[in-house]
Design goal:
tonb box; globular; 22-stranded antiparallel β-barrel; mainly beta; about 850 residues; Maltoporin, Chain A; about 50% strand; 8 helices
Amino acid sequence: MIPAKKALKLSLLTSVPIMATATATVAEDVDFSTIEEVVVTATKRAASTQDIPVAVQAMGMTALEQTDVDVFTDYLLQLPGVSAGGSGPGQGTIYIRGLASTTPNLTTAGVAGLAPNVALYLDEQPVTQVGRNLDVYAADLNRIEVLPGSQGTLFGASSQAGTIRLITNKPDTLEFQAKVSGGVSFTKGGEMSEKVEAMINYPIIDDKLAVRGVFYVDNQGGYIDNVPGTITAAESARFKGAEQRPNGTTTSPGFQAGADMSDVTFLEASNLALVEDNFNDASYTGARVSMRYYPSPDWEINLGHTRQRIDSEGVFFFDPELDDPDELSVQRFSPDEIRDDFDNTALTIEGRIGALEVVYAGAYLNRDTDQTVDYTDYLFVGQYLPYYICDASVTYPGGAAPSGTCQAPNLYVGSETETEVWTHELRFNTPAEKRVRATFGGFYSDQTLIERNDFTYPGSQFAESFTPGVFGWPQNGPLPGSSVSDPNPRPVGVIFFNDITRTDKQVGLFGEATFDVIPNTLSVTAGARWHDVDVRLKGSANSSFFNFGGEDVNAFGTNLDTQFDGTQVINGVPVPKGAEAKGWVFKGNVSWTPNENTLLYFTYSEGFRPGLPNRPAGAGGGAVPAVVRTDEVTNYELGWKLDLLDNSLRFNGSAFLVDIKDLQTTIFDATVTNLFFSDNAADAQIKGIEGDLQWASQSIPGLTAFAAFSFLDTEVKELVGASVAIAQPGEDLSYAPSFQGNLRVRYEWLMDNGLEAHIQPSLAYSASSYSDIVLINRAEQDSYFLMGMAFGVRKDNWMVEVFGENLTDERAQLNNNLVFDHERITTNRPRTFGVRFSVDY
């Protein structure tokens, strides 16, 4: 016999997801006339989606299975209003409602990058990270919840545009469960992919203690070719005149533009040894083990550990300037590879003290990445590069015609990051049935990110064999006394390196209270959060150039220990030790329920993203600020939740207006400084309408449909003094398509042989958008239209399905990176067919 409280908990954790309407078996005892209620914890209380005055988009177990969602880009493509930038596995950035500014670039400056403005949660734990979002594989997930709009009161910093929550399935103390699923697929012009996932749930003490284990391997075949090519230092920005970028803007002429280079020998870099078809393989391997324990009827303990590894080679973008962009080709002159490991241990304790529900959620996350990145494209913007790989008689001709040798420019970066995050939250809920109810608590997080980047110019190590007068670059090493994680000299050929530690510490106190003005009809909610976020940098970013003088001259942000020790002054303004965001954000909500099938609400909410110190503070004649200001968001939202046609049609949606102050952006502009830096770009505004519809046919049993849409109108309102040219007032923000929508129809029926069959076509569309707010990096990303189809059969405990994805073989432009003046377009996987299966025990 299940105690009532535990039965409720079980129903909450195993409820059918939002996007899985009127599920799957067609039989006489199944009622298709209604849409099943879904319980989520988006407000940090368990409640039906239709009973909470909050916009929630979600995908649950059935929807995740029906759409074959596995990884980061899969589920983002299914959610209108949610878009992503980035350049491959483990390197993605999430945007919601078009609140975006900049092209994600993780090659060189993750530690000095902007904090995300969308918070990512794994169960009760925030796993939001600077530079690289955690790419959690969607194995044995109960649901994915997307909360668009500012969520600053309950979820804190970096939730100014919204929050995404990945909710895992918890151990079941009542019955043994096991499942094996997998599949194989074939991509047009690419390699085969295969995956397998296994889950086992075992009750150790009936109704009291259970464990659950999940294991997965997903090998994703490549589809981009590394094709033959050569390149020389003659293509350096130093020697080239003003040229038009692909977006129509013009580059600055190089220092030696127009010089007679006929007596210069340019040695070629060739990639013949690296030429390979379908070189962008990726694999996800991981496991999660969790335990649930009921020490008493009023208390529950959940303990879990997740370990995941991503191994990826090649790149996930192509070069549209090559002869046939449909072939998805690129030229890379050094190996590209990444290994991304994380371990996460989380503890949640839930119980009751008197009338109060108590929840403690604590976690420790450790993440290590080891990456090698071809950096040859830097040649196109790096006017100082010839100093390091060319004879002095080339770079300092002294009035004579340049002569000498420039080595092959096959550059690469070796990048290592180590991330540790501790989070703790303690919160309390008053009884939900009371006329006045509240959620309140405190939050603490401590994140440390260590990043080491070694910029290697192989030609520089041959400097002693150059003609007389050439630089003889010394072996590079940390500045004396600097706070580096690796005190050893760098390998020969490392001309520049970063060894920087970033710390982000956050403390918050939060609360929301609801009062039923008219019970079950009219309610008001007020919320507030006090926060104190401190961001600091320390370490060394040294160039071989400074080893000539034997000391750091504080140029280009090389010694962060002295730059941010509280004693420096730039343009008469003291440089603080770090960036601090301290203050309050507020929320107000009014909800009206005129009948059991209608909920209307209005929400006012605020959000923020902390600023950060700038490594090259004061560069560009003081143009680069020492500290980037916190950007702030105010969200006004009118929403509705409607169950219509005898509960066979559900229509949820919202109209919103978002005001943005001091929008942050990341910039690379070699005319200002040779380092990436950040700045406050503009005040902006976003207007939009979004919604989703779910329908279960009353006349055709087994026929269901889901549709979702997002209309956006984004606008730069006012520039706030950025150091480079920004999109002008009236122009769009980046990653903000004016329209996105998708449609999925599913029909299920019982065949004469007893098999349950289904067919499911799907469509997704996105209008065009821009990749950046910074003009020199701003490229238009084309609209795209995707089609999919699946057909399968189910019998008892097994299922087999044949599927096709991207049937139109569309090249969806997910990211267009112009940072190095040449387009590099990240795209989706070409047309793919496959078969998948699952077996339950």
